[in-house]
Amino acid sequence: MCPPGPHAFLLVIRVGSPFPEIFKRSLEEHLQLFPKRVFDHTILLFTAKSPVTDKMLEKEIKRWPALQEILKQCGNRKHVFNISEREDRTQVTTLFKKIEEMVAKRAGGHYSIDSCDGHFPSEEMKAMVGRASERIAKVQTRRRELKALIEGGKTPPKHLKMVMVGAQWSAKSSAGNTILRKQAFAVDHNRTTKICEMSHSMVADRLLTVVDSPGWYYNNTLHDTCKMDKAEIENIMHLCPPGPHAVLLVVGLASAFNASYWQAVQQHMRLFKDEVWNHTIVLFTRGDWLGRKTVEERIESEEGLHCTRKCSS
């Protein structure tokens, strides 16, 4: 995006956020998308919502050995932004000077994309987009078939009951609020749903009942989930007698749907009868993480999501 290559990488870290060893491993794995010499062109950019002195920053860095190691790999280059003071242009010009000094040491050179390891997978991307288009066509065909069934006399229920299951922080509660068009379930940055919660609303002249359930940790096995949570999840089906019309399996798009994620889904869905999949719809949340990509492209980019095909639609 910056031919013939960027002059600098800004590795952004929020002041006050934890930086344990697992964060360092995650960071290094993502930077493996570039050659190791990316650190020669990198400045650590610390962000804060209030003024941070050099003494305060040094104290923060000393707290986390993993952060010290990353900073060392970057040649101890760092800068601080107070993001609440956007009118303070001196912090921006100072950053420019640090970038210019770094570039000068590289003899005015930029990070050359010509010598990057690997290549842009254009053919793979084209194939993925093609598969995504085929998926969209199948979905549209399926929707036309369902519409024809309704128009042919299959009257939808006037009281629609649905239950929501899924991992923690998959935005189940937010999804329930969107469906019900009201703030029915509490939402914050912590785990909010600890027991099954039910709410009702009239939407499009139809009575809706939505039941939210406690989530499991996204890559925990069923054995790792505490007995109380398992009992709550298992009980959700009995809160909509004689049973829900739909089970919404909520999957957040902010994380990769890898093998451990899929294993956790499979094991927790075993708390219900085998035919649960015939009544399940995958509900994707956090769609803003897709940017300009379609959800079909995301599905085709991750093999784990292909496994959800056992859902009827």
Automatic annotation (TrEMBL):
AIG1-type G domain boundaries: 157-313
Pfam families: AIG1
InterPro entries: G_AIG1, GIMA/IAN/Toc, P-loop_NTPase
Gene Ontology molecular function: any one: GTP binding
Keywords from the named record: GTP-binding, Nucleotide-binding
PANTHER family cross-referenced by the UniProt entry: GTPASE IMAP FAMILY MEMBER 4-LIKE-RELATED (PTHR10903:SF107), GTPASE, IMAP FAMILY MEMBER-RELATED (PTHR10903)
Family of the protein in this entry: Belongs to the TRAFAC class TrmE-Era-EngA-EngB-Septin-like GTPase superfamily. AIG1/Toc34/Toc159-like paraseptin GTPase family. IAN subfamily.
The protein's name: AIG1-type G domain-containing protein
Annotated organism of origin: Gasterosteus aculeatus aculeatus
